[in-house]
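Hi support team,

I submitted a single chain yesterday and got back a structure, but I'm not sure I'm reading the C-alpha cell output correctly. Could someone confirm the output below corresponds to the sequence I sent? I've pasted both exactly as they appear in my results page.

Thanks,
R.
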Amino acid sequence: MQHERFKSIIIALAMLLGATALHAQPPGSYVAPLRDAASRSAHRFHFGVEYLGSAVWMKPDGLNGLGKSIGINNFKGPIYLNGFAGVFRYDGMLPCMMLTGGYHFGSLSRTARTTFNGTPVLRTATFSMGSAVGEIDIAAAESVNLSFLPGLAIGHDWYRFEMLQEPNRGDSLGDVINDEWLLLDPEVKTGRYVQFTARGFAIQPMANLEVHTYDAPMFKARIGVGYRCVVSKPEWRSSSGVVVADIPDIRTQGPVLTAGVALGLFFQ
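Hi R., thanks for writing in. Yes, this is the structure output for that exact sequence:
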C-alpha cells in the first residue's frame, strides 16, 4: 500500500513538473514578468510549507536478523517516509541559498502466522523511524522556471523496533481484551510484546530539481535524488531502558528518492 501511494505521488509530481514547465516566461518583477526584461528587478523570496515524501533503499539484513528471532525475516524494499517542512529563501540575505527544515516519519511491518503452545498466533515485527531534518541547498543553476539545487541534509533520527505476538483466532470480546490488551500480565501465556529504541545521526547529500512559475506564485514542486549515510552505529535499548549489545546492525542508509509540493509565497 505504501509503495503504491508513493508511486502515485511520483507520477502526479512528474505531471505537475511537465505542466509547469510549459508555462515558462521571461524574468521580470514580482507582480508581472516583463517579456523584454534581461534580469529580475527584485530578489527571489520563498516562504512556505512543503509536503515531502521519501523512499530510502536501506539494506534489510539487520532487520531480518532481529526479526528472525520470532520467525520473521522477509523484510525487503525501501522504507517510505512522509512529513512536512518549512522552506525559506531570500537572495537579498542569503544569495542563491535555500533553507529547509522539517520532520518525517515512516515504518516497515511484516507478519507471520504460527502456533504457540498449541494456540494459533499472529506475530508482527515493525520497524519505525522518525527524523528531524535540516537541509541547505545552493542554486547552482537556474532559470525563471527551473532551479538545480544540490544540497546537504542533516538529520537526527529516532528508531523503534517492535515485536508483537497475539492470538490469531475468533474469540469473544472478553478473551481478546484479556489476551491482547493485558499483554504484560504474567498470567497471560499467549500475548507477547517487546520494544527496542535507538537514536542516530545521518547526513544526506542531495541533488534537487525544482519547478516554479509566475503563473502560480503560491506553488512549487521538486524532485530529488541522493544518498543517506548514518554516521555511527545506533545504541539500542529495551523498553525498560537496558542497553542491548548484540542487536544486528540496523542502519537506515542507502539511495534516496524524494518528491515534494510546497505552498506559500514564491516570488521569482
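A quick pointer for reading it: The two ends are 37 Å apart (CA to CA). Let us know if anything else looks off.

Best,
Support desk
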